[in-house]
Amino acid sequence: MSSASTESPDLSTFYEYYDNYNDAPKPCSKESVRRFSASFLPVLYSLVFLVGLTGNILVIVVLFKYKRLKSMTDVYLLNLAISDLLFVLSLPFWSYFTVDQWVFGTPWCKIISWIYLVGFYSGIFFIMLMSIDRYLAIVRAVFSLKARTAFHGLITSLVIWLVAFLASVPELVFRESFNEHNYTTCKPRYPGNFTTWKLFSTLEINILGLLIPFIVMTFCYSMIIKTLVHCRNEKKNKAVKMIFVVMIVFFCFWTPYNIVIFLQLLETMGVMRDCQVSTNLDYAFQVTEILGLFHCGLNPVIYFFMGEKFKKYLKMLFKNWHLPGYVCKWCGVHITYHTESTSSFHTQSTGDQDAL
């Protein structure tokens, strides 16, 4: 990996713990960090890739085949699955990078880094929109009858993707593949003051990826809980519970990463100069980044264990698809199937409609 100074704290830089290698006060060897990365990261990236790819493709197939994108919630779930896929499709490139060097050239360096960051921003934005969707359905039920349509879901989704694209533009502009100390790396080359750009990049991730969503979701769920206390409804409770779990899981898996990159910013600004602290931050960066990456495969698991409809849809899908049905039969798993029209899964009331 690269042994230059850290050029960016953004989400596409799994590997930039090496970038502090020569930046820290001498002597400060980080060979142990480097060995840890080469030994464990490729295996973990591969695991995340397989789980995330399989789970999110199943969600997309279920949404198109059975849900038919009839509601705003369906549209947001589809876009959330696409956002998670952006994460996992970039992992094979980073996996190779951790054990060798960047061999894919500058265009792919820009593109892969960009789509990863787009996936991060769009993912948290769609979780935020799903919270707003629940808020409208329960707290503003009358207004939601007109507002919560698939068409409005499509429009807001396009706006979210545009914001995510724009927020990730610095990756397209500054990312480059170049030779450094006889090693080909992929990282940003910022013009002018490096510390200023790093400050901007870190604050952008912390504010757009954590602070604003946290404020919006806290407001939405506080109002939802207040409303449900006075008006109990089992279907609404189940729908809120699923979206709430999706939100909590996101913050549990990504908040540690945001904290670590902020501490790395303090290190770059000279607030922390201890070699051991720098090394520990490098380890923490790797661990928290992997923790965040595992999140992209968790949403389908949440849908399966908390969504009765999603379980039914999967049974229907596996029943009609010969290969998984054969595998399940070979494994001794019997899939029960009850003929049921697609429309029977769809609740017309916008207030009672659950996630999956």
UniProtKB/TrEMBL annotation:
Mind telling me which InterPro entries this protein's record contains? CCR1-9-like, Chemokine_CCR4, Chemokine_rcpt, GPCR_Rhodpsn, GPCR_Rhodpsn_7TM
Instruction: Give the keywords, sorted.
Output: Cell membrane, G-protein coupled receptor, Membrane, Receptor, Transducer, Transmembrane, Transmembrane helix
Q: What transmembrane ranges does the database entry give? A: 43-64, 76-99, 111-129, 150-169, 207-229, 241-263, 283-306
Question: How is it placed in the membrane, per its record?
Answer: Multi-pass membrane protein
What GO biological process terms are annotated to this protein in UniProt? calcium-mediated signaling; cell chemotaxis; immune response; inflammatory response; positive regulation of cytosolic calcium ion concentration
One GO cellular-component annotation of the UniProt record comes to: external side of plasma membrane
**Glycosyltransferase among the record's keywords?**
no
Indicate yes or no for the key word NAD.
no
The protein's location, in the record's own words, is:
Cell membrane
Q: Name one GO molecular function term.
A: C-C chemokine binding
Positions of the G-protein coupled receptors family 1 profile domain: 55-303
Pfam families named in the record: 7tm_1
Gene3D superfamilies, per this entry? Rhodopsin 7-helix transmembrane proteins (1.20.1070.10)
Q: Predominant location of this chain?
A: membrane
Protein family according to the UniProt entry: Belongs to the G-protein coupled receptor 1 family.
Protein name per UniProt: C-C chemokine receptor type 4-like
**Native species of this protein?**
Lepidothrix coronata
| Lineage of the species this protein comes from | Eukaryota, Metazoa, Chordata, Craniata, Vertebrata
> What gene does the UniProt entry assign to this protein?
LOC108508436
